[in-house]
Structures are given as structure tokens and as C-alpha cells.
């Protein structure tokens, strides 16, 4: 059994050996380098650093939660390459591991984790985003297939993906959230039409619309129980949340450095800067408290607070960085990217308004307004 410090130190050395020598000098270029990011994913899988708590054959080293969190933090602090298609390893893979049949795990997991096959998440629809349970895409049993008709939107990188965890209504008579199933859709199937959405921001994570017209999905591609898709989705989002706060915290720290570099002399910025420093620290402390609860097997109510605090703080910090730079900030492409990227953070994985509702009702026990 490797101790915490040995595992973390080994990861740090491994990362340094993996990165090109001029990585930090030319980070602005490397952050968009998809071949490098693909190589990183494959190497992290083979080295056991991709999912540190999982066994070796699934890209991990069977480490504990504490080590896994420190490894993620060290990687983020050192600007480790971003996985080129995060929703596969970050969201779909935990769902397949938890709910998949042995045959599904055997077929899908390793190509996904190595990055050989990309996965999309087919949850949102034009009339069902925050209210995911209202989705209308239908999957009807027809012999040994599900026949699927419907329309998904905001499906990140669907046009580059091979597979999709597709949520569809399999029992229209059941209460909304009890009639949904999760199906593994081959995006190359007849009847699937994928249309990328033109992006207004700098991003390689293109949104798509996915139209499904009489698409056949074999019964063996059901993930989890029939009408059990709600739990598959909740579990997937839980894994997404575990990652989000660390990513947010590191980018907030980078934003704070940018404010201090550009606006060190401007005392008008100090009150907001002080408030942001405190919020960044609160986010980190809450992350460790969540870890403590998980290690003790206690119910951990922190995820919703961290999602809200992390995403709102992220937006505030990059707006302050722009104010610190002054009028010249509009011509800085890196700053523009950070500001645009921060805008999305209060939407994906649960919007801020919805997070506030959850915190008010479930954590604080306030009555519905
Ligand atoms: C970067 C990014 C990547 C994404 N990737 C994917 C993906 O790969 N697959 C996928 O399926 N989806 C994806 N999404 C979509 C995302 O899950 C939805 O945008 C999100 O669930 C919100 O849904 P919506 O956009 O339909 O907004 P709506 O739910 O229509 O909300 C519109 C506004 O109303 C507010 N609102 C809604 N309900 C309430 C309420 N009860 N109380 C108070 N206010 C409310 C919201 O906060 C928001 O301000 C992605 C989104 C982003 C930004």
C-alpha cells in the first residue's frame, strides 16, 4: 500500500516527466493542443493516475479518497493538460462502473478511459434543462430493441463522440422521474442526426443538437434498471460535482494572481479582492470538510454549496481581473477566454438559481416560496 505522500510525490514526478520541457513557457499554445491532451489521458490511464481510487485495470491505483483529492489538486495547480473530452471519464465512466453489466464494463470502459472512444451526455432537451425529469425523448420497447424518438440539446462534443448516455422516457404513465431510463446510444446509428451549434465563445467543447428519428438501441444497451435512469443521472452528477470545485478553486487562484499582478496599486480593488480571497479559502476549507464527511461515511451536504460558491466566485474574480487591467483587458485573448469560460460555470451541473433552491429547501429547511 503506497502512503499518501509517496503517491502524491510520485504523481508530481510523473507529471513533470510527461510534460514537454517548454510546457509552462508555451502554455498558451499547449492548452489547446488536442494531440498532447489525448496523449496525457492515455498516459495517465496507463500510469494509474486517471482515476486514482480505481484499480489498475481501470486507470487507477486503488488509492484512498484523500490521496485522490491531493493528486487532483496537485495536477490542477501544475496546470496538467485538460482531458480533451472530460464528460467520458468524469461522468459516463463512473455510471458504467456502478450500473453496467459485466459485458458493458468489458466492452466500454477501457476504450473510454484511454480516450479511444469519446462519450457525450444526452440529458438536456429544449424544454428540459434544470427540470431534467420533464424530458420528452421517448424509448419504446419493440422486440429486442428500444425505438427512440426525440431531441437533445447542449450535448457537448456529440459530433466527435462515438457513444452517448441517452436519457429517455420509457414509462409515460409513471411519475416524471420514475419513468426515465438510461440507454447507451451508438451515435453512428441510422436515424441519429447531429448538428453542432455555432459558439459565441472561445472553446473546443462544441455544443451540439442531437435529433433522434426511429433510432434502434439494442436492449442490452440499457444502463441500470428499466425506469431507473434517475438514479444513474444523480450518481453521474455527483461525480461531476466532486471534480468541479477543485477545477474552480485552481482557476480562482489564478484569477486572484492576475488581479494582484495587474492591480496591486489600485486600492479601489482591495475590498472586492479581500472578499474574493476569503471566499476562495472558504471553498477550499469546505472541500476538505466534504472529504472528511465522506471518509467518515457521513452524508455530505457540501456539494451544492461548493458548486454555487465556486462558480459565482470564479465569475467575480475574472471580472475583477478585467477591471484591474483596465480598458486594455478587452484585447487580451486569455482574459477573454477565462471570462467566457466562467460564465458557463453557473449553468452546467446545476444553475445557481437551482442550487440556491436546493440549499434553501434541503439544507436550511426553509419553506418553498
Ligand atoms: C458548458 C456547458 C456544457 C453542457 N454540457 C451538456 C452536456 O454535455 N449534456 C447535456 O445534456 N447538457 C449539457 N449542458 C446543459 C446544462 O445541463 C443545462 O444548460 C442546465 O441544466 C440548465 O438548463 P437550461 O439551459 O435548459 O436552462 P433552464 O432550465 O431553462 O433555466 C433557464 C433559467 O431559469 C432558471 N431556473 C430554472 N428553473 C428554476 C427554478 N426552479 N427556480 C429558479 N430559477 C430557475 C435557471 O437558473 C436559468 O437561469 C451544458 C451546459 C453548459 C453551460
UniProtKB/TrEMBL annotation:
Q: Which residues form the Acyl-CoA dehydrogenase/oxidase C-terminal domain?
A: 227-364
User: Which InterPro entries would you find in this protein's record?
Assistant: Acyl-CoA_DH_CS (IPR006089), Acyl-CoA_Oxase/DH_mid-dom (IPR006091), Acyl-CoA_Oxase/DH_mid-dom_sf (IPR046373), AcylCo_DH-like_C (IPR036250), AcylCo_DH/oxidase_C (IPR009075), AcylCoA_DH/ox_N (IPR013786), AcylCoA_DH/ox_N_sf (IPR037069), AcylCoA_DH/oxidase_NM_dom_sf (IPR009100)
Q: Name one Pfam family in it.
A: Acyl-CoA_dh_M
The record's annotation in SUPFAM superfamilies points to:
Acyl-CoA dehydrogenase C-terminal domain-like, Acyl-CoA dehydrogenase NM domain-like
Question: GO CC: one term?
Answer: plasma membrane
Q: Which cofactor does it need?
A: FAD
* Alphabetically ordered keywords of this record: FAD, Flavoprotein, Oxidoreductase
Query: What molecular function does GO assign, one term?
Result: acyl-CoA dehydrogenase activity
Q: Where do the TM regions start and end?
A: none
Q: Could you confirm whether the keyword tRNA processing appears in this record? A: no
- List each copy of the Acyl-CoA dehydrogenase/oxidase N-terminal domain by range: 11-116
Residues annotated as domain Acyl-CoA oxidase/dehydrogenase middle: 120-215
Q: Which domain of life is it from?
A: Bacteria
The family note in this entry says: Belongs to the acyl-CoA dehydrogenase family.
Question: What protein does this entry describe?
Answer: Acyl-CoA dehydrogenase
Q: Which organism is it from?
A: Mycobacterium triplex
Q: What is the lineage of its organism?
A: Bacteria, Bacillati, Actinomycetota, Actinomycetes, Mycobacteriales
